[in-house]
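User: Teach me something about this protein's shape.
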Amino acid sequence: MSAILSVRQVTEQVRQAVEGRFPYVWVRGEVTNLSRPSSGHVYFSLKEDDFLLNCVWFRNQQKEEAFDPLTGEVWEDGPRPSLARSMENGQTVICAGRLTVYGARGQYQMIVDLGQAEGLGLWHQEFEALKRKLAAEGLFDAARKRPIPREPRRVAVITAPGGAAIRDFIRISSTRGLGAEIRILPVPVQGEEAPPRIAEAIDRAGREAWAEVVVLIRGGGSVQDLWAFNDERVARAVYRCPIPVLAGIGHEIDHSITDFTADFSAATPSHTAQLLWQERHVLIQHVDGLESALQLAFSRRTAMLAMRLEHASRALALLSPQARLRRQEEKLHDAVLRMDAAAKASLGRYESLVEALSLRLSGAGETRLQHAERAAERASAPLDALRRTIGLAGEQTLSRMELRLQALDPFEPLRRGYAMACDDTGAFLRSVSQTAPGRPLSVILADGRVLGTVTAVEPSPRQDDGAGHAPLPE
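Assistant: First, the predicted structure itself:
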């Protein structure tokens, strides 16, 4: 079973629902049941046909104001009385406020903050009619709106030249961004002549195509003061402008037809400058971040190149002719050591044989000794020949290895009068197809280099001279 609510709980929940759904509304209707008790509060109802909305206008909200509470505009003709003092039964008014529930009677009511006479209500109807018309034609479509450029260098500002709006715009723009050129197209911003002049200035900015963005600004004012920006001619001029249009009309609570048509609408004229240019300390911080990123990238790049250079140096050391020559010398040294060891081992075996024969002959007679001596002499002859043969073979092997090493030395031909040609990268040229006229050329000789440029390339014909060699060019 669901919980049973008390009357207070039900009323409180209804009040929260109403206030949450209607935090601030404008309501148009005919004044009826008007009552002004001694407390100073004004009680009345707004009527339309058979529907009725109870309203209360508390005394502390009925103060005479020296300025318009909606726009902040100072009245030039002095303070104006609150509508609550002049309102009468049967008068059509527009009231602004919030809906709530009066718990003592269980009724919802409107707590009024502001009130306007019927004349403004007619303007509101005209505004809504034009808004619906232009919206149906697509003038407000978000898909057609263009992005406002950031940090523009050329800006056309359409506004009154002596107003506070342009002064605030220039003051803020002078402290932001990296500097820009601003052209002011002076126009009246209120009155009957304002709409055609504003539309003409927008068309002019579009024709000149000088600016990167068109800024349309006007300071705060009453609904009548801002009405020029609810004109259809101004809206259509904004729509057909080939340059993005940024509008800053009145204060944040003001919304004009121009705001809906522009590519972007700022809250105030000052806000337009803030949207166009960043604060300079933000730009400086961004530059510092880019500098740090650049230094880090440079360090990483240099470290990578140093590693690649080290690897290339190691590879070059392993593949260079000097390294190959050292390895061949080490192989030759090992071969000589092995040859000496083999010769010593062979001589040791023959010496052992001679020693064994001498021992066998030492106890025999002279005849046997003579036979043994002759046998020893006969054995010594092949031993001497073997020694000479082994020595000669070692010398010949050593000579052949020395000749092979000399043949592998890339600089040996240079000492005989030959030369080696390289391109500008240091790579050896083995064919005329590896170079072309105009390219750098380096010729390596036995005692240095000759630097020059290729003037011509003449390939040799594919013929040999009978000995298997192609003839040299003349």
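Now, about its shape. The longest strand covers residues 25-35. Residues 436 and 457 are 6 Å apart (CA to CA). If you'd like, I can walk through any region in more detail.
User: That's plenty for now, thanks!
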